Amino acid sequence: MKVTYDAEVDILRIVFRSTLVEESDEDRPGVIIDYDKDGNIVGLEILDASKRTENPMAVEYSVVGKAA
Fold first, then answer.
1. How many domains does one find in the chain?
2. 67: pLDDT confidence band, cut at 50, 70 and 90?
3. Which domain holds residue 11?
4. CB–CB of 27/45 below 8 Å?
5. N or C: which end of the chain has fewer CB within 10 A?
6. Does residue 47 belong to any structural domain of this protein?
7. What pLDDT, on a 0 to 100 scale, did the predictor assign at position 68?
8. Which residue pairs, CB below 8 angstroms and at least 24 apart, start in 1-4?
C-alpha cells in the first residue's frame, strides 16, 4: 500500500494494489474510487484533501492483532 499527498493540487491518494485501473467512480463528491478489471478496489483519491482531513501530510499506521 502506498499513500501520497500532492500539495499543489491538494489530492491525497491511497494505492492498495499496483495494477492497472480499469474504471474510476466518484462515490461521493470529491472521493474517487479506482477499480481493476475484476471490480476490486485498487485505489482511492480524496480531492481537496486539506479540507477533508485533519492533516493530509501526516499518516499514522498501526497493526491490530496478529499480522498474517
1. 1
2. low
3. 2-52
4. no
5. C
6. yes
7. 65
8. 3/59
Using only C-alpha atoms, the chain has a radius of gyration, in whole angstroms, of 13
DSSP bridge pairs for 26: 32
Q: Give the C-alpha separation, 52 to 67, whole Å.
A: 30
Grid cell of 20 as nine digits: 492497472
Torsion of CA 25, 37, 45, 14, to 10 degrees: 160
Q: For 7-59, what is each residue's pLDDT tens digit?
A: 999 999 999 999 999 999 998 999 999 999 999 999 999 999 999 998 988 88
Identify whether 34 is part of a domain.
yes
Copy the grid coordinates of residue 44: 482511492
